[in-house]
Specification:
The chain is mostly helical and 298 residues long. The chain is 64% helix and 4% strand. The protein folds into 2 domains: 3-160, no CATH class; 184-292. It has 12 helices and 2 strands, in the order ααααααββαααααα.
C-alpha cells in the first residue's frame, strides 16, 4: 500500500479531519507539485506557451491583459536577473496563478484554462498520468469538491458529488462516449457550464443535456426522430437487448417525465432551479450509461 492510501486510512482510523481551508491549501500545494513534475520544462523553456496561458486566463476572467503580454517577444525578467539566466518554474505565470488561487473555483479555473492551452498547442504529454496524479491529490482533500476527468485528449474539471456516481455516471460515460463524439460534445459542454457556476448558462446546461440524450438515441436507433418520438423504437431495442420488462417500463417512464420537464420547465417557462441541475446531470448520465455500457459478452 502506498503512502497516500496509508495516510487516508490513518486519518479515518483516528477520525482526523482538516477544515476546508486547510484541505484546500494542501490540495493547492499538491497540484503545484504535480504540475511541476510534468509541465515545468514545457512552461519554463517555452515562454510562448506560458504567455498563451496567461492571456487566455485574463480573457476568460475578464481581466485586462497587460500590453506587453500581447507580444510573443516579451520576456518577463525579474529585477536583477539577466535574460541569459535560466528561468525556473516559479518564474512562470502558470505557477503564479495556481499559487495565488484563494479557493477551489479559482484553482479549478486556472487548471481548466491550462488544459485548454495544452489542447491548442498539441503537446505530446501524458495527460492520463497527469489526471491520475491530480485525482490522487484530490483524494487527500476529499471535502474540497474537486473532480477531474479525461475523455480522449480533453480534460474537464467539475465540482464533485457522490464519488460512486462521479466514477460510474460521469467518468465511465465520458470514456464510453469516445465513439459518439456529437453526444460527448453536448454532455461535456453541460459539465463545463456546471463547473463554471454561471447562472446565465443554466438554461444552456439543461439544453445540452437534452441534446446529448436525443443525439444518442438517434445514433443508437439509427433514425432522426426527436426525443419525444422515440418510444416505440426504443421499446423494441430494449427488448432486443433482453432487458427486464419492468426495467424497460421504468426507463421509458423516466424518459417521458424527463421530456416533460425539459419542455415545460426549461424550453417554455424556464422555471428550473439550481438545485435541479445536479439531479439532471446524473439522470442524463444514467440514461446514457444504460444505453452504451458494454455488455459482459461484448
Amino acid at each position: 500500500m502506498d503512502i497516500k492510501k496509508r495516510i487516508i486510512n490513518h486519518n479515518k482510523r483516528w477520525n482526523i479531519s482538516l477544515d476546508i481551508d486547510e484541505q484546500f491549501f494542501q490540495l493547492r500545494n499538491r497540484v503545484i507539485r504535480v504540475i511541476n513534475d510534468f509541465l515545468s520544462d514545457s512552461f519554463t523553456n517555452d515562454q510562448k506557451t506560458d504567455k498563451q496561458f496567461r492571456y487566455k486566463l485574463d480573457t476568460y476572467l475578464g481581466r485586462e491583459p497587460e500590453l506587453e503580454r500581447n507580444s510573443i517577444f516579451y520576456l518577463p525578467i525579474k529585477p536583477g536577473i539577466f535574460p541569459q539566466d535560466k528561468r525556473v518554474f516559479t518564474d512562470t505565470y502558470l505557477y503564479k496563478e495556481i499559487k495565488e488561487s484563494k479557493n477551489i473555483k479559482q484553482l479549478a479555473t486556472a487548471l481548466q484554462v491550462l488544459f485548454c492551452v495544452l489542447e491548442d498547442v498539441n503537446k505530446d504529454l501524458p495527460l492520463d498520468k497527469i489526471v491520475k496524479e491530480l485525482r490522487e491529490a484530490a483524494e487527500l482533500s476529499p471535502n474540497t469538491g474537486f473532480h477531474i476527468t479525461l475523455s480522449k485528449k480533453r480534460v474537464i474539471l467539475y465540482p464533485s458529488g457522490a464519488k460512486l456516481l462521479d466514477q460510474r455516471v460521469i467518468n465511465d460515460v465520458l470514456e464510453w462516449l469516445d465513439q459518439y463524439p456529437k453526444v460527448a460534445k453536448y454532455f461535456e459542454q453541460a459539465l463545463k457550464f456546471y463547473a463554471e457556476g454561471n447562472s446565465n448558462e443554466y438554461r444552456n446546461l439543461l439544453d445540452n443535456l437534452r441534446f446529448s440524450t436525443e443525439q444518442l438515441l438517434k445514433e443508437v436507433l439509427d433514425n432522426d426522430k426527436s426525443l419525444e418520438k422515440q418510444k416505440d423504437e426504443l421499446l423494441a431495442w430494449l427488448k432486443q437487448r433482453k432487458n427486464h420488462q419492468w426495467i424497460i417500463n421504468l426507463y421509458q417512464q423516466l424518459l417521458h417525465y424527463y421530456c416533460k420537464y425539459q419542455n415545460d420547465a426549461v424550453k417554455h417557462d424556464e422555471e428550473f432551479s439550481k438545485d435541479e441541475l445536479e439531479f439532471m446531470i446524473y439522470l442524463t448520465g444514467i440514461f446514457i450509461r444504460f444505453l452504451i455500457q458494454p455488455k459482459p459478452n461484448e
